[in-house]
Amino acid sequence: MGWTWRYENSDGLVINPDAAPVAETSPTQGDAETWLGETWRDLLDAGVDAVVLLEDGREVYGPMSLHQE
User: Fold this and answer.
1) CA–CA separation, 53 vs 39, rounded Å?
2) What is the DSSP letter of 21?
3) Percentages helix, strand, coil for the chain, rounded to the nearest 5?
4) Separation of alpha carbons 3 and 18, rounded Å
């Protein structure tokens, strides 16, 4: 399977906004994190507030806010 991201709103609910980039499945954690680094602004604009990193469906870390502090 690989590494991918789950999208959440500010209430911690899983969301899949139509306008959000599709979370690609990456072969490594580094590839998944690079993808997020390239797309986080688009995700935020689409209504995603936080992401959770998944490896083969298992939560690795998160939720991690996409909002600047």
Assistant:
1) 14
2) P
3) 25, 30, 45
4) 21
Tokens, residue 21: 């980039």
Coil, strand, or helix at residue 45? helix
Mean pLDDT, consecutive 10-residue stretches, the chain (69 aa), reads 94 94 93 96 97 97 93
- Kindly report the number of other CB atoms within 10 A of residue 50's CB atom: 21
Look at residue 1 in the predicted model and tell me its pLDDT: 75
To the question of pTM greater than 0.85 for the whole model, the response is yes
Q: Do 2 and 56 touch, CB atoms closer than 8 A? A: yes
